[in-house]
Amino acid sequence: MKIIASNFKTNHTRKSTLHFCEELEKFATQNQAQQQIIVFPPQTALLENRFKTFQIGAQNAYPAQNGSFTGEIGLEQLEEFGIQTLLIGHSERREILKESQSFCAEKFDFFAKRGFRICYCIGESQEIKKQGIEAVLEFLESQFEGIALDYPHLIVAYEPIWAIGSGVSASLEEITQIHTRLKQKLGKIPLLYGGSVKPQNVREILQIHSVDGVLVGSASWEISSFCQILDNSRI
Question: 0.90 exceeded by the pTM?
Answer without folding.
Answer: yes
